[in-house]
Every structure is written in structure tokens, then in C-alpha cells.
Amino acid sequence: MRYVYAIDVGGTKVELAVGDETGRLLATDRVATGDLGRQDAIVAALSERLRTLTPVGIHPDAVGVGSPGPLDSRAGRLLKPSNLPGWEFLEIENKLSAAMGLPVTLENDATAAALGEWQYGAGQGTDDMVYVTVSTGVGAGIIAHGDLIRGAAANAGELGHVIVNFEGVPCHCGLTGCLETEASGTALARMAEERRRESSWLRAHAGPLSAPDVFEALRAGDATAREIVDHAADRLAWAFGTLVNLTNPERIVVGGGVAAEGDWLLDPIRRAMPRYAMPDLLSSTTVVQSALGADVGVAGAVAVALRAGRKA
Ligand SMILES: [Zn+2]
Fold first, then answer.
1. Against a cut of 0.85, is the pTM above it?
2. Whose CA is closest to 210, among 270, 162, 258?
3. Domains observed in the chain
4. Longest CA pairwise span in the chain (Å)
5. Nearest 5°: CA angle at 281, between 278 and 284?
6. Cα(272)–Cα(253) distance, rounded to whole angstroms?
7. CA 172, 185, 35, 42 torsion: positive or negative?
8. In this predicted structure, what is the pLDDT of residue 309?
9. 57 alpha carbon – ligand 1 mean position (Å)
10. How far is the CA of 124 from the centre of ligand 1 (A)?
11. What is the pLDDT of residues 49-78, one digit of tens each?
12. Residue 115 Cα to ligand 1 middle (Å)
């Protein structure tokens, strides 16, 4: 049995795990991203935590890291992730490898999650699937013909920055009208704030509105919340329809915080997809919820570490 380390880097928290080759997590740990410090201190803190986490008698032989992109995969380093201050240009592959004495593989987080769902989750048994995360941001990982689509610089799958509104708002990536500005959890909260006055439910809510608030209003029958979710679902369906026409996937697996709403999000997407995908291709595609849920990030990083070892 092989064992590996997994690290899932996020804007608010970093999750660490020791996993085995079946994807089972033997031990997990979680730390606030800000508590790891900056640059070299991050590497020292991560290697210390992984060592502490390791069960007695277990000897992991590789490390997989999932991180928000875009990345510089050739140099095994991050670029300038907007929500990770202190991680700019961090050469995590080289530095963590030196600290741990093990091979380290860095992968875009959505790509890693796609690998996790494909091997251990809702994508099992398919050769062609797409994993889409709808959370604070939007991202995707594409499996085609039984392999990952990584691209020339391993940054494929930036579905959140496909343009779906020519009159939309500026995105942190530099483009305008990106899917992420129309359908992420952040976008749902923004649209709810913009339309708060129209809805007695939203108006009565104290404090800033969040994506879960929008779905709570939806379940309570609020018409404004219905329009906001339908708009986001329509833009997701646009992007999904494009994916269907381009890659003819058997399954689109949707995960991330907003996807935890289940069919309240997925049903309006399914209803809208015939507007954006060719019927013959759409008939062979199903849209399903992530099976790994909150573990998809670390499970994906386990899959990344195992896959790198297999290739070596
Ligand atoms: Zn963008």
C-alpha cells in the first residue's frame, strides 16, 4: 500500500491530509491560511504540520498540492493568486521537496479536484467528464479520453473566466463579464445586495447577504432570489453548454460551496442547458453533484501525488 501527503490551499484555510492509494484519508488537519505566515515560513509550517500528522509506522512517499491558479507549472511555483497574500511566486515544489525529502507536485486546485472526483467520487467509471467548482470563485478540471487536459502551461480549465456577459462587471483577472462575476457565491451575494430593496425577505435580513442567504430566500418562495439564482444558473448553463459542445462529456460533476445547495442550483442549470448545447450531445451528458463534498480538495491532492509517483 502506498501513502502520500495532500495539501489543499485555499484563501481562508489550508487542509492537509495523509491518504492511501485507494483515496482513503488516514489523518487530516486544517489551518487558517493567514496563520502560516509568508513565503519560506509557509513551507516550514507545512512540512512541520505534515510530519506531526503522520500516523506511526506510515511512510508517505510523495506530496500533492492543489492551489488556486493560474500557476507556473514548469517552475512548480504559484504566480500571484489574488486571495493568497504572502504566497506570491512561492516555489512550493522545490522548497517543500527540500524540506520533506520527497517529490512534490503542484496542480491547479480545480484540476486536482477533477482528478479526485474521477478516481474516488461522482466521476468514477467515465472516460470523459468535467468537474466544475462553484464556490467563492468558479473553476473546472477536464478529463478527456481517460486523461487530464492540462494545457501548455497546466492552466487549462479556467471556466470561471469565460465571458458570459458583454455588459458585465470587471473581474479581478482583468477581463469583464466573466462567469465568476455572474455565478459564483461572491456574485450571488453581490446581486442580492444590489437588489435587496426589491425583496421583503432580503430587506428583513440583518447584515451582509451571502450566497446561502439567497438560497434560503429562494426556499421561502422569494421572487427576487428566484431571479438571481435563475440568472446565475443560466450563465452556468451557457458555460456548461459550451463544455458539452467542445468535449462531449459523459458527466459534469458540480462541487464547491454553492453546489452544496444541490438541486436548488442544479435543476435550473439542467433546465437552461438546452439553450446552449447541441441536443444530440446534451442527451449523453448528465449534470450531477460532487460525491466527495468538502473532502474533494484533499482527495484531489492525494490523487495528484499518486499520479505523479506512477508517472515517475
Ligand atoms: Zn475573470
1. yes
2. 258
3. 3-108+295-311 (3.30.420.40), 122-291 (3.30.420.40)
4. 61
5. 140
6. 16
7. negative
8. 63
9. 45
10. 30
11. 999 999 999 999 999 999 998 899 888 999
12. 23
Amino acid present at 107: E
CA 135 / ligand 1 centre spacing (Å)? 14
Instruction: Please give the distance, rounded to the nearest whole angstrom, from the Cα atom of residue 55 to the centre of ligand 1.
Output: 41
CA–centroid distance, 137 to ligand 1, in Å, is 9
Query: Which of 312, 296, 298, 220 has its CA nearest to residue 19?
Result: 298
Q: Which residues contact 82 (CB under 8 A, 6 or more apart)?
A: 172
d(CA 164, ligand 1 centre) in Å:
10
Phi, psi of 90 (to 5 degrees): -65, 120
User: Look-up: residue for cell 463534498?
Assistant: 293
H-state helical runs in the chain: 40-53, 92-100, 109-120, 180-183, 185-194, 200-204, 211-219, 223-247, 263-272, 279-282, 296-311
What residue type is assigned to position 60 of the chain?
P
| Ligand 1 midpoint to CA 48 (Å) | 35
